[in-house]
Amino acid sequence: MTAGLNTRFESDDASPGFMLWRVTNRWQAVMRRTLAPFGLTHVQFVLLAALTWRADPGGTTQVDLAHTVRTDPMMVSQVLRALEAKGLVERRVDPADARARRVLATAAGVDKARTANAAVEAADEEFFGARSAAPMSLLEHLSDLDR
Questions:
Q1: If DSSP codes are grouped into helix, strand and coil, which group holds residue 98?
Q2: Fewest CB within 10 A of the end CB: N or C in the chain?
Q3: What is the mean pLDDT of the chain?
Q4: What pairing do the DSSP bridges indicate for beta strands 89-94 and 97-105?
Q5: Which residues pair with 92 in a beta bridge?
Q6: Which helix (H) or strand (E) element contains residue 91?
Q7: Least confident window among 21-25, 86-90, 124-128, 142-146
Q8: Contact 103, 60 (CB under 8 A)
Q9: Contact 145/64 with Cβ under 8 angstroms?
Q10: 3-state DSSP assignment of residue 84
Q11: Contact in structure between 89 and 109 (CB atoms under 8 Å)
Q12: In this predicted model, what pLDDT tens digit does every residue of 113-122 receive, in sequence order?
């Protein structure tokens, strides 16, 4: 058996990818705690916030929404069904394409997005803080956030 990993990094703290993984997991834990009182998962919040931000009275297609938030369209469809069941979004047939769905936040969804967003922004400020504006390398920022 060989000892250690064949890597160019001296330690796990020197790998930007591994540091990003660690910081992402810490931040996602903060988001789970922040969004729990609102009955939302992080991905539900992101989709609802994106719809609310756009505020398009005709809605947006699920595919466009997936592109906006840079995630898988099939996952977006599943999450939107859960949000629809909660009364937070409406999914309508797209008049231009019967196979497509247009999605928009309901009034309850907009209210939920707005109140949850205030909590998310406060949590982000606490997590990232003023130190994120300091001139440092990516690895230094990640190391700082990992503490």
A1: strand
A2: N
A3: 88
A4: antiparallel
A5: 102
A6: strand 89-94
A7: 142-146
A8: yes
A9: no
A10: helix
A11: yes
A12: 999 999 999 9
